[in-house]
Amino acid sequence: MTRKTYAHIDLAAVQHNFDQLSACAPNSQHVAVIKANAYGHGAIAVAEALASRVALFAVAFMDEAKQLREAGIDTPILSLEGFFDEEEAIWAANHNVWLVIHHLAQLERVERLQNPPIIWFKIDTGMHRLGFSLEEAPGLLQRFSHLLGPDSAVFTHLACADEVSNDKTRQQLDNLSRALSTQQTHLALSVANSAATVHWPSAHQRWNRLGIGLYGGFTGGSPELPQPKLLPAMSLHAPVIALRDLPAGETVGYGSTWRAQRNTRLATVAIGYADGYPRHAPSGTPAICHGQRIYLAGRVSMDMLIFDVTDCPQVALGDEVELWGSALSIKEVADHSGTIDYELMTRVSERVPRVVKRI
Ligand SMILES: Cc1ncc(COP(=O)(O)O)c(C=O)c1O
Question: Which of 122, 197, 277, 348 is deepest in the core (most CB within 10 A)?
Fold first, then answer.
């Protein structure tokens, strides 16, 4: 590693988080959502770490499932966007990949297959992104009931589960009950994501789907409410590669947006937006060096950040800075940058080596 910039991945933290979250809903089974390279943590490493705990993984689309199968992961996998052509559906059936079905053409295509895959039937209860409408769902469930086997489920996705006082979740749960009220057979359901697993017991069903919480991200609610004790699974580090003293009045970085109000010591750190650090992080966004907070000064560059380290005089060349992780929550950096921890995790680029702490 030439540049000592890296993301440390703690697989024991992922296991701990899985255990904490699944304890919130002891009567459910839990799908581990490992799409987008396990939210940037490394899908194969996370799948291996969770394989003995998890009965079903979820990815966004088939290429992500193929990557896991090629790595020897043999746990069933759910493809959340289903399939795009017949070849994919056949491959899915042959490789124990379960398919989310969200429009009629998919149902008709699955019906024509000799060896149909396991399907999950998605209902749009209010998110309005994917799924059958509340009006069409009951009829389609009856018409295609022969495609629903013991591992099938009816599922929906919640739009606002992270907001504990938002009535949208209750409305979505009511919509789902209404859509299913005319069904003769008992169908397995899947509703809750991480936030609903923590905050909405009424959303717990046969399967809950855990994403952000597995990685120690924010599971919603308010900081005053009891939360499971989740641990950050990723911490992002980069070294100090230059130090300089700047007289008061001088400006820093592209666009000269930050001006020193006092004689200032600056540390240049080898990470930038090409590594996934958010370009919109404003001056004042914190990082940690020697256990102390230091603050971003000026715009984020492609490969470098500049921090005001005047109040941390021990900072020396080569010292390690934590951009987020155990000493500084990724949510805090996301809040500063006008985004969410999901985006920061998934955007850590390939040029940042993942240093995986195995169990
Ligand atoms: C359909 C679906 N289910 C579950 C999840 C996991 O949600 P979370 O990461 O909020 O736990 C996602 C994440 O985007 C999703 O798209």
Answer: 277
Q: How far apart are CA 211 and CA 33, in angstroms?
A: 5
Containing 138, the helix (H) or strand (E) segment is: helix 137-143
Kindly report, as residue ranges, where domains of CATH 2.40.37.10 are found in the chain: 234-357
Class of the CATH domain delimited by 234-357: mainly beta
Going from the Cα of 33 to the center of ligand 1, the distance in angstroms, rounded, reads 7
* Placement of tokens 């020897």 in the chain: 72
Residue 221's pLDDT is 77
For ligand 1, whether the C-beta of 9 sits within 6 Å is no
Would you state the pLDDT for residue 223? 65
* Residue 97: how many other CB atoms lie within 10 Å: 25
| Ligand 1 atom nearest to CA at 80 | 1
List the one residue out of 103, 110, 105 whose CA is nearest residue 124: 103
Q: Contact 61/78 with Cβ under 8 angstroms?
A: no
Cβ 210 under 6 angstroms from ligand 1: yes
C-alpha 221 – ligand 1 centre gap (Å)? 16
Domain with CATH 3.20.20.10 in the chain: 11-215
Residues 258/298, Cβ–Cβ less than 8 Å: yes
- pLDDT computed for residue 185 by the predictor: 75
pLDDT given at position 132: 97
CATH topology of domain 11-215: TIM Barrel (3.20.20)
Nearest CA to ligand 1 atom 9: 211
Task: For residue 332, count other CB atoms closer than 10 A to its CB.
Answer: 14
Query: Encoding tokens for residue 69?
Result: 């199968």
Q: Is the CB of 42 under 6 A from ligand 1?
A: no
| The predicted structure's pLDDT at residue 358 | 77
Task: Report residues of the chain scoring pLDDT below 50.
Answer: none
Task: Tell me, in angstroms, the distance from the centre of ligand 1 to residue 237's CA.
Answer: 27
The one-letter amino acid at 286: P
